[in-house]
Amino acid sequence: MERPETGEGSTADSLASVPSGIAAELAAAGFENARQVARGGAGVIYRCYETALGRNVAVKVLPS
């Protein structure tokens, strides 16, 4: 299900680029086209394409 792209906080506004270190780790784990979709106290959520499954997935990266 997609959120409508209206006003501040829309899906298009919330997609942020991924730091290169995180992008490299996600790529090594089989995830491509990562985009940040949320950030909270427990970590950062990225939307990625998982090559093994052939579909988009959500990946939560916890702080170290």
UniProtKB/TrEMBL annotation:
InterPro entries: Kinase-like_dom_sf
Protein name, entry field: Protein kinase domain-containing protein
